[in-house]
Amino acid sequence: MSNTSDPRHSSGDNQGTERIQRLIGGDYLLRWVIGHGGMSTVWLATDVRHDRDVAVKILRPEFSDNREFLDRFRNEAAAAERISSVNVVRTFDYREVPDPAGHTFCFIVMEYVRGESLADLIARRGFLDEDLALDVLEQAAHGLSVIHQMGLVHRDIKPGNILITEEGRVKITDFGIAKAAAAVPLTRTGMVVGTAQYVSPEQAQGKTVTSTSDIYSLGVVGYEMLSGRRPFSGDSSVSVAIAHINQAPPQMGTSVSARTRELIGISLRKDPERRFADGNEMALAVHTVRMGERPPQPRSAAMDRRAPAPTPTESTRILGQVTNPTTVQPAVGVAPPPVPVRPVVHHGAPPQYPAPRRRGGGGLIAFLVLLLLAALTAVAWLLFSTGTLTLDGITGRTPPSSSPVAPAPEPEPTVVTEITTTTVPAPEPAPGSASRETDTSSVTTPPPAVETNRETVPPVPDAGDAAVPSADNVGERTTPAPATNAGTVTGVEAPVRSATDSDDSGEETP
């Protein structure tokens, strides 16, 4: 039964799934792809006969015709079927089926692990607390001890091949390049097999690979878990492999205990004879460090015993809590969440990211800004209005009726000046006279020309004084008009000016 009804698959994908399903047969019903490897693709499937979920690992068609890869794949299946450990992924079945296309269709049926790889856990959390890292190392070393007891070498220990279940159980997987120690080597002379970031020095040089190579790779994994970085990095796999051969790993920080740093240091020794001999010695050393003691030296009397099987601890429970099952069916059309880079982990709890903080007071600030702008606008308008006065104190504009600072406009006044015929000395201008009041009164329009019996008196361009008659027009009176403006005084006696002042309108003689 195929996923023909799954909306996430296109018709081409459905046809490919149906073709693979026909080759596999009716014992295992494919569901969806849960992983990809260098040699194979892994599907989640249902074991119809045993009513359980399984992982079906299918060798890629481009490798099935390669005799070396096919032998390696068969060797993986034969070796994995003999392994029985809670810390190693179980293998249930292995089959080879002729492909109508002319290839050999090979697949392995394995235990389905609901959890995530150690690589995903490190990528999400940055690094692990020391207690959690030691728990992972002890369980992984115990799984390697079972593999090494059977005369097998994994050859590709790395975080991607270490799975963690929801119960905190560590399981080693992917025997794609494992081989029996007594079998004929599957690699050509000088050919490096493994992942460069975790490869042992002897493996990088193409020398004989033993169980100590797996110990070195597991030491690199421990270094990365504790420090959040790999001991060596470079621009290419070749430069990284050369660093594993010639360089000493950088010292880890003092946040890691001295006994744990010593444990990792022994695992990363360049000489294979000075490392822990196999997974059993590594498990014993990790167990000793977890008890608060220094790790025993390799091949010493303290190593002449069987390592106890790791029992669930508080660290194991926490390890299960921080694990996210990533092998479940992904959501349709949902992008994966961003992965934080190297979050600090102190007590094993998953990092908490605070919700975005809401900014408060935005409305009040906006209201104050608007209020300030309104006040500045009113002041500017007032200054603009008052700044348009001419030198004679009379403006040529009528204020707008909607001005918020000026009083309501009054009817336009007609100014009439009355001149007496009595000649008197010129008195001092009294404060608050009609001329001064005219300057500070509300804005008016220029008065009409004044008609006399003889001729019109020319205006005097003095901003501080009112119109003053000369000696020639004394005794003449203007025709009054109705007064309509408060602030304009009618019948005020005009001061008498000298004859010399009649031609000088800029100065006044008292």
UniProtKB/TrEMBL annotation:
Domain of life of the organism encoding this protein: Bacteria
Stretches with biased composition (Acidic residues): 501-510
Span list, region Disordered: 292-317, 391-510
Spans traversing the lipid bilayer: 364-384
Low complexity composition-biased segments: 413-425, 462-472
InterPro entries registered for this protein in UniProt: Kinase-like_dom_sf, Prot_kinase_dom, Protein_kinase_ATP_BS, Ser/Thr_kinase_AS
Binding-site positions, ATP: 57
Record key words, sorted: ATP-binding, Kinase, Membrane, Nucleotide-binding, Serine/threonine-protein kinase, Transferase, Transmembrane, Transmembrane helix
Record EC number: 2.7.11.1
Protein kinase domain mapped to chain residues: 28-290
SUPFAM superfamilies: Protein kinase-like (PK-like) (SSF56112)
GO terms, molecular function: ATP binding; protein serine/threonine kinase activity
Pfam annotation, one family: Pkinase
Protein name: non-specific serine/threonine protein kinase
Annotated source species: Corynebacterium pygosceleis
